[in-house]
Amino acid sequence: MTMLEPGIYSASASVHELASIRAFVFEQLTSQGLDSNSAQSLSLAVDEACSNIILHGQDLNASRLIIHVEYSNGLCRIRIKDNAKTFDPNSVKSPDMMSYFKNFSYGGLGIELMRRIVDGMIYEQADAKNQWNTLLLHKYIHSPRN
Amino acid sequence: MQTQQAFSIEVHAFDQGRILSLHGYLDASTSNILDQEIQKTLADALHKIIIDCTDLTYISSAGLGIFMKHIDAIRKHGGDLVFCSMQKSVFTVFDLLGFPILYRIVDSKESALSLFDVGGES
Question: Which terminus of chain A has fewer Cβ atoms in its 10 Å neighbourhood, N or C?
Answer without folding.
Answer: C
